[in-house]
Q: What sequence folds into this?
């Protein structure tokens, strides 16, 4: 592994000003934050007169397609590789083999960041990595921000904070979102698409979740397992954010959604009060304190549920005593 | 009617500094904004050493009960009457008779404000009246803001903007919300209760809505009728915001929720594109352009649905052509 050097945001800005031909990597199964960072930073560097392009192991989600407007397609051989919102090289997915040990600068906001790049800038007080990218772009020499870039960065901040609802939201988060709105994109229309609009398939999936959810640990825990068959019956988009549903039920302290994948049952844990990062650590996973994930090797849904319920119950029981 | 004098916010602050014994009125069927204003302002005036108390035609909703912590109960004969977030004297409800022509100062943010007070301060660029009250409190002589007051004011801002999602949200809205958060209340826990938490009864009601919703006008319209029996099976709180659900379905331009009441079927219309105020006007109702309501006299749910679908179809067909 590289010996990572921690740098300041000013040094990160100088890195971009002093170099050229950037490849920007976002994490696998990309969300609004990693894509917002990648498209926003790429667009800003292009406006600065630099060459910049993007790579991700998975395609851009349809609902973020507007981000493409912030950048132009450029073809060139990269000289420098940058990762955004990537907490661990393994999260590069299929791109890890190619770039895992070739990242020149990693910019991230995960407290669980495991250094893999030559230079690293991590600010875990940022609710979204897009907050950092916004500050970074302001440090670049020229005015590189426009409406399209602002929309990318706002997307990352809004999606990572549940539209300013979650505990990671700070005064700075609000301040930056407000400043980004001034660039003139229609934030209300964007928020409707990001947070309110549901497809009929999505509504069907939510019904399935609430019809089949299981409560445990004196109703402080709630778990639902989604089989491959169920997941395949809807678009990937429709599954987005489904992990938040069990925790929304009054009284539930830990909500768990299990999804059947090739490699096992992918668990997403959400809590209002419990350190779910620690629970996921038992299964080799990680994430944030109130939102974390792991993969559970199990013969079937019943076994996967049993294993995760055991660990959650231990922690919730401590909470009850 | 009084001849209302428009005053500045500074003059409003001077009004409070120079007088004493205030009665603060909020509007009937109170929401988070009018209550946040009333409790926040009352608490601040009390910290300034003034006597202040509250009145509203309806009780404080259970979910805002924490606001009571911001004020102490004081008994006195009022010398001055102030209304907050009240767009028209008729919206004082049962208190109109007593105070409708006795309001010394009205503070409001509705563009539709119809002056009824002696002095009036209206800023329709404010997403919530709580934004104004926050600025006003900052103009008072002493530091009158604390965690409990900040929580009241944040509540008004968050609820009136759908947690910063709606088009009324501005840079100033974000800025003020961020500043208020600094007073230290747990915004995430508050937002969870205000926006995310669902009782099991609420989840059952949502399932009922989505199982029984009817689409019409080439799926651009969606309607659900909730009988008295269904409505009585849940708490009033659980029905809160249910009117927004049909419109959330992708492709639906007009969403309609019908509720069976003594006086007929109460229709709530929501749209992203259509003037539903006009549609509701046909039935003697009104409201905002994208959110309006009316009462439909009909023998049963089927007739009520038929009548409203007819009017909506006419308008939606125009949209399709």
A:
């Amino acid at each position: 592994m590289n010996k990572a050097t921690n740098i300041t945001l000013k040094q990160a800005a100088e890195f971009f000003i002093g170099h050229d031909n950037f490849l920007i990597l976002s994490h696998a199964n990309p969300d609004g934050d990693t894509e917002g960072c990648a498209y926003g930073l790429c667009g800003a560097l292009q406006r600065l007169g630099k060459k910049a392009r993007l790579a991700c192991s998975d395609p851009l989600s349809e609902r973020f397609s507007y981000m493409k407007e912030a950048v132009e397609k450029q073809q060139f051989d990269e000289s420098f590789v940058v990762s955004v919102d990537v907490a661990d090289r393994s999260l590069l997915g299929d791109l890890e083999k190619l770039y895992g040990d070739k990242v020149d600068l990693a910019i991230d906001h995960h407290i669980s960041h495991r250094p893999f790049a030559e230079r690293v800038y991590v600010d875990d007080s940022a609710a979204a990595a897009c907050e950092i990218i916004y500050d970074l772009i302001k440090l670049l020499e020229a005015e590189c921000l426009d409406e399209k870039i602002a929309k990318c960065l706002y997307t990352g901040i809004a999606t990572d904070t549940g539209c300013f609802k979650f505990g990671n939201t700070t005064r700075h988060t609000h301040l930056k979102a407000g400043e980004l709105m001034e660039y003139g994109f229609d934030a209300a229309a964007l928020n409707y698409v990001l947070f309110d609009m549901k497809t009929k398939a999505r509504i069907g999936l939510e019904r399935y979740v609430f019809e089949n959810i299981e409560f445990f640990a004196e109703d402080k825990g709630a778990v639902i397992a989604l089989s491959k068959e169920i997941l395949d019956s809807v678009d990937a988009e429709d599954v987005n954010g489904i992990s938040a549903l069990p925790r929304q039920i009054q009284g539930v302290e830990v909500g768990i959604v299990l999804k059947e994948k090739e490699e096992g049952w992918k668990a997403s844990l959400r809590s209002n009060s419990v350190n779910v990062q620690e629970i996921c650590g038992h299964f080799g996973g990680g994430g944030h304190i109130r939102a974390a994930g792991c993969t559970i090797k199990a013969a079937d849904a019943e076994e996967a549920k049993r294993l995760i319920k055991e660990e959650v119950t231990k922690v919730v029981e401590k909470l009850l005593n």
